[in-house]
Specification:
Shape of chain A: globular
Strand content of chain A: over 45%
Oligomer: heterodimer
Radius of gyration of chain A: 13 Å
Number of helices of chain B: 0
Strand content of chain B: over 45%
Largest sheet of chain A: 7 strands, mixed
Order of helices and strands of chain B: EEEEEEEEEEE
Shape of chain B: globular
Helix content of chain A: under 10%
Chain lengths: ~110, ~110
């Protein structure tokens, strides 16, 4: 049963546009994450937020910025998309964010940049 | 940083046979090794994990083995069924945060 909800499911846009993806979890978890899954299915963490505070910020281009209004929501904004941003963006959550915790993933937002 | 290598990119087995997926990691400080499954068109979900204080863990048809000396861990699926067909990702955690480093995935096909 899905408890991490992502919108939209798909988004097609052109180079240079701005896009925003939304994520909401109903599990009452303290920590949320954004992962990028490329066309070869490789998964890389981008950001991690604990109770609205940024705790992990991997080396991602500055055009990516996470936004958290409360611990149940973590959005991702891409200011000026590039072709290499085409991927599936997966949102996840875990109970506290301390190590060794199971992640619960959303269904992903597939971004295509033309 | 941690690197996780997943050795089999694809694996095909007959229904009822066993499947083994192998992973290696680089950071000796890694202590938690989960496995996730991604079925076609669906997201990832957790299947089983192992911590470094044990070398074996079983859950129904799934067994994870951990060899800390060799920095290797593996997922064993017995009596495979068509619904086991999916991409399986191994992962490892090192450091103080819950930051997973994933392997590249193994596409398992269980053929009738």
């Amino acid at each position: 049963e899905t408890a991490v909800f992502q919108t939209p499911n798909y988004h097609v846009t052109q180079v240079g546009n701005e896009v925003s993806f939304n994520c909401k979890q109903t599990l009452g978890h303290d920590t949320m994450y954004w992962y990028k899954q490329d066309s070869k299915k490789l998964l890389k963490i981008m950001f991690s937020y604990n109770n609205k505070q940024l705790i992990v910020n991997e080396t991602v281009p500055r055009r990516f910025s996470p936004q958290s209004s409360d611990k149940a929501h973590l959005n991702l904004r891409i200011k000026s998309v590039e072709p290499e941003d085409s991927a599936v963006y997966l949102c996840a959550s875990s109970l506290t964010g301390v190590r060794d915790e199971r992640l619960f993933f959303g269904h992903g937002t597939k971004l295509s940049v033309l | 940083g941690e690197k996780v290598e997943q050795h089999e990119s694809t694996l095909s087995v007959r229904e009822g046979d066993s499947a083994v997926i192998n992973c290696t990691y680089t950071d000796t400080a890694s202590s938690y090794f989960p496995w996730y499954k991604q079925e076609a068109g669906k997201s990832l979900h957790f299947v089983i994990d192992i911590r470094s204080n044990v070398d074996r863990k079983q859950s129904q048809r799934l067994t994870v083995l951990l060899d800390k000396k060799a920095k290797r861990f593996s997922l064993h699926i017995t009596a495979t069924q068509p619904e086991d067909s999916a991409i399986y990702f191994c992962a490892a955690i090192s450091g103080s945060f819950n930051k997973l480093t994933f392997g590249a995935g193994t596409r398992l096909a269980v053929c009738p």
